[in-house]
Specification:
CATH superfamily of the largest domain: Aldolase class I
Number of strands: 16
Helix content: 25-40%
Number of domains: 3
Shape: elongated
Distance between the termini: 50 Å
Structural class: alpha/beta
CATH topology of the largest domain: TIM Barrel
Low-confidence stretches: none
Strand content: 15-25%
Strand order of the largest sheet: 1-2-3-4-5-6-7-8
Length: 522
């Protein structure tokens, strides 16, 4: 089983993504997570480019890493400087990392137009930079910038650049598809050609501008590359980098290469979600392997099959990457969907019982009205329990009123909600304001209930989505409201549908409260 080294550049290349900004503390936390999963190399940043990265390299030394080596990133020396007095190379040395990665030009077009030096001068710069750094680091990797474009235009010069780094002692020559535009067939041909002429181990660093970064990384390994560079969740500049959350399981589970320890592979989904949380971005549901929808099944025929043999519609066991099988409920559902969801909710149902058909009929009727339970499984659990007599009412609505008032043109409107509820034998009448009518109603509902159910103080509204369902009706259209709520441990989704957005929101909010209280009382 051939070992493939995994080189993560989330903390450097990943932070060039449009919506990503990581503090030093963020980067340190992600470093510990990457080390825990067993990533071989973690590229921490460019110490010569900004104070934040310089601080990271000071603080990362205090971490007790068990599996990963930290790499500092930079460029070859400036043509105006010698290696020993180049500020960039000095900063790399001062980072005192065991691994240093530098990029250099391998496309003659860039040498002439960007650096404006001769091709021979560029070869000297690569050689001298690598040779200098080898005196100060255990490993030096040479990132051959724009290699595939350069090899296409001038293969002889591109190979000479690799040879310059090789002769200086580079430990790995990383072929970079910097513009991300190279297709897989070209990558395969180029990597094979390089390996025939170069003795030093070869790596791949692919960008995703043609949506081929994962495929290009895999084909490079199959062609002889021994190192793969990428980022968690494919974060990166423009369209992103090669996604390690897809590459690693593809290489290890499908092709038999060794990337991570088997018990570490099971942490992949956790690392994916952790990184997104730290970066403050939402998880991509349809991301292969680690996404919420990666092993989600909706069609009744599919669900019936996977209940017998999961491999009928699953390409791997989801547990291998830390994921789990999910069964969705919708108007495509059959009895198998209902039975599977009941099992998840610890509800006993007989497959041939009339209740199952009744639930199925209700489900399809509700979805015809516009309800959607795929993202609102808490509402579906309540639907099941109501049909089976397992639900209880925690309060009754006597009435509510929501007022939106705008007093001045250049000031935001004022929202106020009043609500009257019956809880047991008590009548509770409260009012609250909010930054919108739904927010005000949410505050008033909680304010009325928290004195009776203090556990609701931990509940927060995490997300709120509105979708127009009936096209062509303008402001009189029916809308669907999806609400995601959560406490310190869990999150759950609920749904409401109405021509009145306040009513649809009320339905989703009440389901959210009911679900929380029902779980607390079980």
């Amino acid at each position: 089983m051939r070992k493939i080294e995994i080189y993560d550049t989330t903390l450097r290349d990943g932070t060039q993504s449009e919506d990503i900004a990581l503090s030093v503390e963020d980067k340190l936390r992600i470093t510990e997570k990457l080390d825990e999963i067993g990533i071989h190399y973690i590229e921490g940043g460019w110490p010569g480019s900004n104070p934040k990265d310089a601080e990271y390299f000071k603080k990362v030394k205090k971490l007790h890493l068990a599996n990963s080596l930290i790499a500092a990133f930079g460029s070859t020396h400036n043509p105006k400087h010698r290696p020993n007095n180049d500020p960039n190379l000095k900063a790399l040395v001062e980072s005192k990392t065991e691994v240093i990665t530098i990029f250099g030009k391998t496309w003659d077009f860039h040498v002439r137009e960007a650096l404006r030096i001769s091709l021979e001068e560029n070869l000297d710069i690569i050689h001298n930079s690598v040779k200098f750094l080898k005196k100060h680091a255990a490993k030096v990797f040479f990132d051959a910038e724009h290699f595939f474009d350069g090899y296409k235009d001038n293969p002889e010069f591109a190979i000479k650049c690799l040879e310059a780094a090789q002769s200086a002692g580079a430990d790995c020559l990383v072929l970079c598809d910097t513009n991300g535009g190279t297709l897989t067939s070209t990558v395969r041909q180029s990597v094979r050609a390089v390996i025939k002429e170069i003795k030093t181990p070869v790596g791949i660093h692919a960008h995703n501008d043609s949506d081929c970064a994962v495929a290009n990384s895999i084909i490079s390994v199959e062609s002889g590359a021994v190192q793969v560079q990428g980022t968690i969740n494919g974060l990166g500049e423009r369209c992103g980098n090669a996604n390690l959350c897809s590459i690693v399981p593809d290489l290890q589970l499908k092709l038999g290469y060794s990337c991570l320890a088997e018990d570490r592979m099971k942490m992949l989904r956790d690392v994916s979600r952790f990184t997104n949380e730290i970066a403050n971005i939402r998880h991509f549901k349809r991301q292969p392997f680690v996404g919420d929808s990666a092993f989600a099944h909706k069609a009744g025929i599919h669900v019936s099959a996977i209940r017998r043999r999961p491999e009928t519609y699953e390409h791997i066991k989801p547990e291998l990457v830390g994921n789990s099988q999910r069964v969705l409920v919708s108007d495509l559902a059959g009895r198998s969907n209902i039975m599977r969801k009941a099992e998840e909710f610890n509800i006993h149902l007989e497959a041939d019982s009339p209740e199952v058909q009744g639930i199925l009929d209700s489900l399809k009727a509700l979805e015809h009205q516009g309800f959607q339970f795929e993202g609102a499984e808490a509402s579906f659990e309540l639907l099941l329990k109501k049909a089976l007599g397992l639900h209880r009412r925690f309060f009754e609505l006597i009435g509510f009123r929501v007022i939106d008032e705008k007093r001045k043109e250049n000031e935001p409107p004022i929202s106020e909600a009043t609500i009257m509820l019956k809880v047991g034998g008590n009548i509770e009448h409260t009012a609250s304001t909010g930054n919108g009518p739904v927010n005000a109603l949410d505050h008033a509902l909680r304010k009325a209930l928290e004195k009776f159910y203090p556990e609701l103080k931990s509940v927060r509204l995490l997300d709120y989505k509105v979708r127009v369902l009936t096209a062509g009706k303008g402001t009189s259209a029916r809308v669907r409201v999806l609400v995601e709520s959560g406490d310190e441990l869990h999150s759950w989704g609920t749904v409401g549908v109405s021509e009145n957005i306040i009513e649809a929101s009320w339905q989703a909010l009440v389901d959210s409260i009911d679900y929380k209280l029902l779980k607390e009382k079980e």
